[in-house]
Protein backbone atom coordinates (compact mmCIF):
# COMPACT_ATOMS: atom_id res chain seq x y z
CA UNK A 1 0.00 0.00 0.00
CA UNK A 2 1.39 3.42 -0.95
CA UNK A 3 2.01 6.03 1.70
CA UNK A 4 -0.69 8.76 1.83
CA UNK A 5 1.91 11.50 2.40
CA UNK A 6 5.25 12.43 0.92
CA UNK A 7 7.87 14.55 2.64
CA UNK A 8 8.75 17.73 0.77
CA UNK A 9 12.31 18.91 1.28
CA UNK A 10 13.83 22.31 0.70
CA UNK A 11 15.62 20.87 -2.31
CA UNK A 12 12.25 19.78 -3.73
CA UNK A 13 10.89 23.30 -3.34
CA UNK A 14 13.97 24.84 -4.93
CA UNK A 15 13.75 22.43 -7.84
CA UNK A 16 10.09 23.32 -8.40
CA UNK A 17 11.04 27.01 -8.40
CA UNK A 18 13.70 26.39 -11.06
CA UNK A 19 11.28 24.42 -13.22
CA UNK A 20 8.17 26.61 -12.94
CA UNK A 21 9.07 30.24 -12.21
CA UNK A 22 9.48 32.92 -14.85
CA UNK A 23 12.88 34.21 -15.90
CA UNK A 24 12.33 37.44 -13.95
CA UNK A 25 11.44 35.59 -10.74
CA UNK A 26 13.82 35.43 -7.78
CA UNK A 27 14.92 31.90 -6.89
CA UNK A 28 15.35 31.22 -3.19
CA UNK A 29 18.46 29.13 -3.85
CA UNK A 30 20.04 32.18 -5.50
CA UNK A 31 19.47 34.55 -2.56
CA UNK A 32 22.26 36.98 -1.79
CA UNK A 33 22.05 35.58 1.72
CA UNK A 34 21.82 36.91 5.25
CA UNK A 35 24.07 39.16 7.31
CA UNK A 36 24.77 36.21 9.60
CA UNK A 37 25.18 32.90 7.81
CA UNK A 38 22.70 30.18 8.78
CA UNK A 39 22.55 26.48 8.00
CA UNK A 40 19.70 26.01 5.49
CA UNK A 41 16.45 24.60 6.82
CA UNK A 42 15.80 20.99 5.71
CA UNK A 43 12.20 21.72 4.66
CA UNK A 44 11.77 25.44 4.09
CA UNK A 45 13.35 27.69 1.49
CA UNK A 46 15.16 30.85 2.59
CA UNK A 47 12.13 32.98 1.74
CA UNK A 48 9.73 30.61 3.52
CA UNK A 49 11.81 31.05 6.68
CA UNK A 50 11.65 34.82 6.30
CA UNK A 51 7.89 34.74 5.77
CA UNK A 52 7.43 32.66 8.93
CA UNK A 53 9.73 34.85 11.03
CA UNK A 54 7.90 38.03 10.02
CA UNK A 55 4.48 36.53 10.64
CA UNK A 56 5.43 35.45 14.17
CA UNK A 57 7.19 38.69 15.12
CA UNK A 58 5.95 41.02 17.84
CA UNK A 59 6.14 43.97 15.46
CA UNK A 60 3.70 42.25 13.10
CA UNK A 61 1.23 41.61 15.93
CA UNK A 62 1.25 45.28 16.91
CA UNK A 63 -0.17 46.25 13.52
CA UNK A 64 -3.67 45.27 14.64
CA UNK A 65 -3.83 48.37 16.86
CA UNK A 66 -2.20 50.87 14.52
CA UNK A 67 -4.09 53.44 12.44
CA UNK A 68 -4.52 53.19 8.70
CA UNK A 69 -6.56 56.37 8.03
CA UNK A 70 -9.28 56.73 10.67
CA UNK A 71 -7.87 57.09 14.19
CA UNK A 72 -9.54 54.90 16.81
CA UNK A 73 -12.67 54.27 14.71
CA UNK A 74 -15.72 53.09 16.62
CA UNK A 75 -16.93 50.62 13.99
CA UNK A 76 -15.56 47.09 13.66
CA UNK A 77 -15.12 47.16 9.89
CA UNK A 78 -12.61 49.95 9.42
CA UNK A 79 -9.20 49.04 8.07
CA UNK A 80 -6.26 48.86 10.47
CA UNK A 81 -2.61 48.64 9.56
CA UNK A 82 -2.87 44.85 10.01
CA UNK A 83 -5.85 44.34 7.73
CA UNK A 84 -4.19 46.62 5.18
CA UNK A 85 -1.09 44.43 5.32
CA UNK A 86 -3.13 41.28 4.78
CA UNK A 87 -4.91 42.87 1.82
CA UNK A 88 -1.61 43.94 0.28
CA UNK A 89 -0.38 40.38 0.72
CA UNK A 90 -3.41 38.88 -1.03
CA UNK A 91 -3.12 41.30 -3.94
CA UNK A 92 0.63 40.78 -4.18
CA UNK A 93 0.35 37.01 -4.16
CA UNK A 94 -2.32 37.11 -6.86
CA UNK A 95 -0.13 39.21 -9.13
CA UNK A 96 2.96 37.09 -8.41
CA UNK A 97 1.06 33.87 -9.12
CA UNK A 98 -0.32 35.25 -12.39
CA UNK A 99 3.18 36.23 -13.54
CA UNK A 100 4.93 33.06 -12.29
CA UNK A 101 7.02 35.03 -9.81
CA UNK A 102 8.16 33.79 -6.42
CA UNK A 103 4.92 33.88 -4.47
CA UNK A 104 6.58 33.14 -1.13
CA UNK A 105 9.05 36.01 -1.47
CA UNK A 106 6.17 38.29 -2.42
CA UNK A 107 4.23 37.15 0.63
CA UNK A 108 7.20 37.78 2.92
CA UNK A 109 7.85 41.32 1.73
CA UNK A 110 4.15 42.22 1.78
CA UNK A 111 3.74 40.96 5.34
CA UNK A 112 6.78 42.90 6.53
CA UNK A 113 6.51 46.15 4.63
CA UNK A 114 4.64 48.25 7.23
CA UNK A 115 5.81 46.94 10.62
CA UNK A 116 7.80 50.14 11.19
CA UNK A 117 4.78 52.42 11.00
CA UNK A 118 4.38 54.81 13.91
CA UNK A 119 1.17 55.22 15.88
CA UNK A 120 -1.45 57.38 14.13
CA UNK A 121 -0.31 56.44 10.64
CA UNK A 122 1.35 59.06 8.45
CA UNK A 123 0.44 61.78 10.93
CA UNK A 124 2.69 60.12 13.49
CA UNK A 125 5.36 59.80 10.82
CA UNK A 126 5.21 63.56 10.22
CA UNK A 127 5.56 64.25 13.95
CA UNK A 128 8.61 61.99 14.27
CA UNK A 129 10.22 63.74 11.28
CA UNK A 130 10.54 66.83 13.48
CA UNK A 131 13.13 65.02 15.58
CA UNK A 132 15.43 63.69 12.86
CA UNK A 133 17.50 65.09 10.04
CA UNK A 134 15.44 64.87 6.89
CA UNK A 135 12.34 62.70 6.91
CA UNK A 136 11.56 59.86 9.30
CA UNK A 137 10.66 56.79 7.24
CA UNK A 138 8.47 53.88 8.29
CA UNK A 139 10.20 51.74 5.65
CA UNK A 140 13.63 52.39 7.12
CA UNK A 141 12.19 51.74 10.59
CA UNK A 142 10.77 48.42 9.38
CA UNK A 143 14.26 47.41 8.30
CA UNK A 144 15.69 48.58 11.63
CA UNK A 145 13.15 46.56 13.58
CA UNK A 146 14.03 43.33 11.79
CA UNK A 147 17.77 44.03 11.86
CA UNK A 148 18.25 45.47 15.35
CA UNK A 149 15.22 45.71 17.64
CA UNK A 150 13.75 42.29 16.92
CA UNK A 151 16.55 40.80 14.83
CA UNK A 152 15.34 38.18 12.37
CA UNK A 153 18.40 38.00 10.12
CA UNK A 154 16.28 38.27 6.98
CA UNK A 155 17.59 37.69 3.48
CA UNK A 156 18.92 40.57 1.41
CA UNK A 157 16.00 40.38 -1.03
CA UNK A 158 13.36 40.79 1.67
CA UNK A 159 15.19 43.67 3.35
CA UNK A 160 15.75 45.43 0.01
CA UNK A 161 12.06 45.26 -0.95
CA UNK A 162 10.87 46.53 2.44
CA UNK A 163 13.37 49.39 2.44
CA UNK A 164 12.50 50.58 -1.06
CA UNK A 165 8.77 49.93 -1.35
CA UNK A 166 7.50 53.53 -0.84
CA UNK A 167 6.84 55.38 -4.09
CA UNK A 168 8.77 58.41 -2.86
CA UNK A 169 11.95 56.30 -2.81
CA UNK A 170 13.43 57.19 -6.22
CA UNK A 171 14.92 53.77 -6.99
CA UNK A 172 12.49 50.92 -6.41
CA UNK A 173 13.19 47.37 -5.21
CA UNK A 174 15.76 45.24 -7.01
CA UNK A 175 13.47 42.23 -7.47
CA UNK A 176 10.30 41.80 -9.49
CA UNK A 177 8.60 40.60 -6.29
CA UNK A 178 9.55 43.85 -4.54
CA UNK A 179 8.03 45.79 -7.43
CA UNK A 180 4.85 43.76 -7.00
CA UNK A 181 4.72 44.87 -3.35
CA UNK A 182 5.08 48.48 -4.40
CA UNK A 183 2.09 48.40 -6.74
CA UNK A 184 -0.02 46.08 -4.54
CA UNK A 185 0.38 48.52 -1.63
CA UNK A 186 -1.09 51.38 -3.65
CA UNK A 187 -3.95 49.24 -5.01
CA UNK A 188 -4.83 48.10 -1.50
CA UNK A 189 -4.76 51.41 0.32
CA UNK A 190 -6.67 53.38 -2.32
CA UNK A 191 -9.34 50.70 -2.54
CA UNK A 192 -10.00 50.20 1.15
CA UNK A 193 -9.50 53.87 2.06
CA UNK A 194 -12.30 54.76 -0.35
CA UNK A 195 -14.52 52.10 1.22
CA UNK A 196 -13.74 53.41 4.72
CA UNK A 197 -14.49 56.98 3.66
CA UNK A 198 -17.83 55.88 2.20
CA UNK A 199 -18.60 53.89 5.36
CA UNK A 200 -17.77 56.88 7.55
CA UNK A 201 -19.95 59.21 5.50
CA UNK A 202 -16.97 61.35 4.51
CA UNK A 203 -17.66 60.56 0.85
CA UNK A 204 -20.64 59.57 -1.23
CA UNK A 205 -20.35 57.32 -4.26
CA UNK A 206 -21.18 60.18 -6.61
CA UNK A 207 -18.32 62.23 -5.13
CA UNK A 208 -15.72 59.86 -6.61
CA UNK A 209 -13.90 60.93 -9.80
CA UNK A 210 -15.85 59.81 -12.85
CA UNK A 211 -12.68 58.58 -14.57
CA UNK A 212 -11.91 56.26 -11.65
CA UNK A 213 -15.41 54.81 -11.65
CA UNK A 214 -15.33 54.36 -15.42
CA UNK A 215 -11.92 52.70 -15.26
CA UNK A 216 -12.29 50.48 -12.20
CA UNK A 217 -16.03 49.98 -11.73
CA UNK A 218 -17.70 49.95 -8.32
CA UNK A 219 -15.47 50.36 -5.23
CA UNK A 220 -14.43 47.15 -3.51
CA UNK A 221 -13.76 43.76 -5.03
CA UNK A 222 -14.39 44.99 -8.58
CA UNK A 223 -11.65 47.63 -8.21
CA UNK A 224 -9.16 45.10 -6.89
CA UNK A 225 -9.93 42.54 -9.57
CA UNK A 226 -9.65 45.14 -12.33
CA UNK A 227 -6.32 46.40 -10.96
CA UNK A 228 -4.83 42.90 -10.66
CA UNK A 229 -5.86 42.03 -14.21
CA UNK A 230 -4.42 45.30 -15.48
CA UNK A 231 -1.05 44.76 -13.78
CA UNK A 232 -0.95 41.19 -15.05
CA UNK A 233 -1.72 42.12 -18.65
CA UNK A 234 0.56 45.16 -18.80
CA UNK A 235 3.48 43.40 -17.11
CA UNK A 236 3.22 40.50 -19.54
CA UNK A 237 3.13 42.96 -22.45
CA UNK A 238 6.03 45.18 -21.35
CA UNK A 239 8.22 42.86 -19.29
CA UNK A 240 8.11 45.36 -16.41
CA UNK A 241 5.83 45.34 -13.36
CA UNK A 242 3.35 48.04 -14.34
CA UNK A 243 -0.31 48.94 -14.83
CA UNK A 244 -2.06 49.88 -18.05
CA UNK A 245 -1.59 53.59 -18.71
CA UNK A 246 -5.24 54.64 -18.60
CA UNK A 247 -5.80 52.81 -15.30
CA UNK A 248 -2.58 54.17 -13.81
CA UNK A 249 -3.70 57.70 -14.70
CA UNK A 250 -7.12 57.07 -13.14
CA UNK A 251 -5.40 55.79 -9.99
CA UNK A 252 -3.19 58.90 -9.80
CA UNK A 253 -6.31 61.06 -10.11
CA UNK A 254 -8.02 59.05 -7.39
CA UNK A 255 -4.99 59.41 -5.11
CA UNK A 256 -4.98 63.20 -5.53
CA UNK A 257 -8.72 63.26 -4.85
CA UNK A 258 -8.28 61.20 -1.67
CA UNK A 259 -5.60 63.55 -0.34
CA UNK A 260 -7.84 66.55 -0.90
CA UNK A 261 -11.14 65.10 0.29
CA UNK A 262 -10.10 62.54 2.92
CA UNK A 263 -6.49 62.44 4.10
CA UNK A 264 -5.97 66.21 4.44
CA UNK A 265 -9.56 67.42 4.83
CA UNK A 266 -10.14 70.23 7.30
CA UNK A 267 -12.41 68.16 9.57
CA UNK A 268 -9.48 65.84 10.31
CA UNK A 269 -7.20 68.66 11.44
CA UNK A 270 -8.12 68.52 15.16
CA UNK A 271 -7.37 64.79 15.19
CA UNK A 272 -4.09 65.32 13.37
CA UNK A 273 -3.03 68.07 15.78
CA UNK A 274 -3.89 65.89 18.76
CA UNK A 275 -1.99 62.92 17.36
CA UNK A 276 1.09 65.04 16.67
CA UNK A 277 0.88 66.53 20.15
CA UNK A 278 0.84 63.05 21.69
CA UNK A 279 3.87 61.93 19.69
CA UNK A 280 5.81 65.14 20.40
CA UNK A 281 5.06 64.98 24.12
CA UNK A 282 6.07 61.33 24.35
CA UNK A 283 9.35 61.94 22.54
CA UNK A 284 10.06 64.92 24.77
CA UNK A 285 9.26 63.04 27.96
CA UNK A 286 11.35 59.96 27.22
CA UNK A 287 14.24 62.10 25.99
CA UNK A 288 14.32 63.53 29.52
CA UNK A 289 13.66 60.15 31.18
CA UNK A 290 15.56 57.61 29.05
CA UNK A 291 15.81 55.22 32.00
CA UNK A 292 12.07 54.56 31.60
CA UNK A 293 12.52 53.15 28.09
CA UNK A 294 12.23 49.34 28.11
CA UNK A 295 15.52 47.48 27.78
CA UNK A 296 14.56 46.10 24.36
CA UNK A 297 14.74 49.64 22.93
CA UNK A 298 17.89 50.74 24.79
CA UNK A 299 20.64 49.42 22.57
CA UNK A 300 24.13 50.45 23.57
CA UNK A 301 24.97 51.29 19.95
CA UNK A 302 22.15 53.83 19.68
CA UNK A 303 22.09 57.36 21.05
CA UNK A 304 19.29 58.48 23.36
CA UNK A 305 17.28 60.17 20.61
CA UNK A 306 17.30 57.00 18.51
CA UNK A 307 16.24 54.90 21.49
CA UNK A 308 13.38 57.28 22.21
CA UNK A 309 12.17 57.28 18.62
CA UNK A 310 12.45 53.48 18.45
CA UNK A 311 10.23 53.23 21.52
CA UNK A 312 7.60 55.80 20.52
CA UNK A 313 7.46 54.62 16.91
CA UNK A 314 6.83 51.07 18.07
CA UNK A 315 3.78 52.03 20.12
CA UNK A 316 0.28 51.16 19.01
CA UNK A 317 -2.26 53.99 18.92
CA UNK A 318 -4.03 52.92 22.10
CA UNK A 319 -0.76 52.30 23.99
CA UNK A 320 0.53 55.75 23.02
CA UNK A 321 -2.73 57.35 24.20
CA UNK A 322 -2.67 55.38 27.45
CA UNK A 323 0.94 56.30 28.25
CA UNK A 324 0.31 59.92 27.30
CA UNK A 325 -2.75 60.09 29.55
CA UNK A 326 -0.76 58.62 32.43
CA UNK A 327 2.06 61.11 31.97
CA UNK A 328 0.22 64.30 31.04
CA UNK A 329 -3.42 64.15 32.07
CA UNK A 330 -3.99 66.17 35.29
CA UNK A 331 -4.17 64.05 38.44
CA UNK A 332 -7.01 65.07 40.76
CA UNK A 333 -5.94 63.29 43.92
CA UNK A 334 -2.14 63.49 44.02
Secondary-structure blueprint:
Layout: H1 10-20, H2 46-55, H3 58-62, H4 81-98, H5 103-112, H6 121-129, H7 138-149, H8 156-163, H9 176-199, H10 210-216, H11 221-238, H12 245-263, H13 269-288, H14 304-313, H15 317-328
Walk me through the structure:
The protein has 334 residues and is an all-alpha fold. The chain has a single domain (42-328), classed as Hypothetical protein af1432. It is built from 15 helices and no strands. The radius of gyration is 21 Å and the shape is globular. Residues 73-77 have low confidence and may be disordered.
Instruction: Give the ordered list of helices and strands.
Output: HHHHHHHHHHHHHHH
Number of distinct helices: 15
What is the typical, i.e. mean, pLDDT?
Answer: 92
Tell me, what's the shape?
globular
CATH superfamily: Hypothetical protein af1432
Cα-atom radius of gyration: 21 Å
Beta-strand content: under 5%
- The first-level CATH class is given as Mainly Alpha
Helical percentage: 55-70%
Fill in the CATH topology: Hypothetical protein af1432
Number of domains: 1
Number of strands: 0
User: How many strands, what sense, and barrel or not for the largest sheet?
Assistant: none
Amino acid sequence: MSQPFRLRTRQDAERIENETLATAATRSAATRGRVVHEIPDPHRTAFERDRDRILHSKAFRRLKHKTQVFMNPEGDHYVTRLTHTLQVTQIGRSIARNLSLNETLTEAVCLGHDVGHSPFGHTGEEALSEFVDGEWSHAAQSVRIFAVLEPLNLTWEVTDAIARHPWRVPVGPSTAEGSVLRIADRIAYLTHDVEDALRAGVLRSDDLPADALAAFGDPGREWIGTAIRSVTDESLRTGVISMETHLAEAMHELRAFMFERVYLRAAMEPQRRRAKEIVRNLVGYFAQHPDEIPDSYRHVTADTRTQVIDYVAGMTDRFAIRIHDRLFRPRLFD
